[in-house]
Amino acid sequence: MAEPEIPDRFLGGYAQILGEVADTGRRLTRDELEARRALGRESAEAGHQLRALVRLHLAEARAAWPGAAKGSDPAATDAVLAAVEQVVDAFAEGFERAQRLTVRREEAARREFIDDLLYGRSDLGRLAERATRFGLRLSRAHAVAVATGPEAYTESDAVPRSVESALLARFSGRKILLTTKDGRLVCIAPGSQPDVLRYFAKQAHAATDGGQVAVGRPHRGPGGVVHSYDEALEALDLAQRMGLDDPVLYAADLLVYPVLTRDRQAMADLVRSELGPLQQARGGAEPLLHTLSVYFDAGCVAAETARRLALSVRALTYRLERIHQLTGSDPSDPMHRYSLQTAVIGARLLDWPAKEL
């Protein structure tokens, strides 16, 4: 594709300046240099390429050379070359200033949009209009993945840049938005393309040295992104409270937990009723509560539970019997197991016994 023609006004009397320099040997004045910077800013704002603009200046210098350089006069030639250097340098300085300002404005607009999008601020209709500028069509379903690592990240850090490079290389042309928020990596992708978020999770887990990633469910509309983002954050919070160490968590697989705590008072009553007596044990409730948690995670298999706890099967059996004595519920009895396991999950969700219920 041919480059757009650059108007002569961006030269701004350049040939005349060269002629005067050749005649007098003077350098450019402060006002002339500022005028060159202004032309550089205007050309950048008009969308022209710096390379083409420099080429235009050199071509103009070449065209004016026979008259400006006074034949083979070395002094005139040196003065003209110095003037060309001054002009191009000032022009490029103005051009680069305008570009940096544009980048800052674009970044500020992008950050404001992301904040509004993830916090559900702004009019939803206006938000959907702004989203098209960043490649998102919010009328469709989107899902959000959030990755956390050992440290807080910003967009200029190496980790986000490496993850973004990997995504762009793999999914060039896809409508993906990658950013950072509150020190975490955030990826927004169409809900119909789960492979994008799976790949993001893989790359983020590796880049953050084993960090954890949570993926929200796809939801439609401008508010859908907020909903999916909140689900991902809740999954990360749940993983911390429950001790879930899976590298990738899917909100769809964890729906039972918010259901269990929807009636917080009822769950607190269950925990107090089923597990409260464990506080009478030597060392408090925590060691026996941990034993129950590992026992249920191991599928109620005594040998596997003992291995995970670094205990003998006999020592484990003693602990389970002690739990039975204190609570009146036998962990090995299917009739009692459901209530105990639900209470154990509730205790983790409510951070009991560290917090009073």
UniProtKB/TrEMBL annotation:
Pfam families: GGDEF_2, HTH_30. It comes from the Bacteria. This is Helix-turn-helix domain-containing protein. Belongs to the CdaR family. Residues 120-238 form the CdaR GGDEF-like domain. InterPro entries: CdaR-like_regulators (IPR051448), CdaR_GGDEF (IPR041522), PucR_C-HTH_dom (IPR025736), PucR_C-HTH_sf (IPR042070). Gene3D superfamilies: PucR C-terminal helix-turn-helix domain. Residues 288-344 form the PucR C-terminal helix-turn-helix domain. Transmembrane segments: none annotated.
